[in-house]
Design goal:
Blueprint: H1 8-11, E1 20-24, E2 29-32, H2 34-39, H3 44-47, H4 59-66, E3 71-74, E4 83-90, E5 93-100
Antiparallel strand pairs: 1-2, 1-5, 3-4, 4-5
Length: 107
């Protein structure tokens, strides 16, 4: 029997189909997909090693990250009202999956 150990770096490509940010336990952005950077209107280089607080997160989002809860938030960032975020806790931090929110139709 062989036992394989995957590092976080090995496991993250599994999620690469969805735009995401990976935060370490200090809320520092360690990895970002190009699609996530595009949704945040920034480059990957501007985001990596930056702090989540630079994105002006809503307090409820921060509480969910602190409690390591899976959750979904509409408008999690003041500066990006067009986004929603799904949180997935990870032993090494938190994955934030980004989606463009559907804008309400006006008649």
């Amino acid at each position: 029997t062989e036992i394989y150990t995957l590092s976080l770096h090995d496991a993250l490509p599994i999620y690469s189909e969805k735009p995401f940010l990976f935060l370490d336990k200090n809320y520092v952005i360690q990895q970002v997909t190009p699609e996530a950077a595009m949704l945040l209107e920034k480059t990957s280089a501007e985001l990596v090693n930056g702090h989540l607080f630079d994105l002006s997160p809503e307090p409820d989002l921060m509480r969910a990250i602190e409690k390591a809860k899976e959750a979904k938030f509409l408008k999690p960032f003041l500066s990006y009202p067009h986004l929603s975020v799904s949180l997935k806790p990870d032993p090494n931090g938190t994955l934030l999956f980004l989606e463009r929110s559907e804008l309400p139709q006006t008649t």
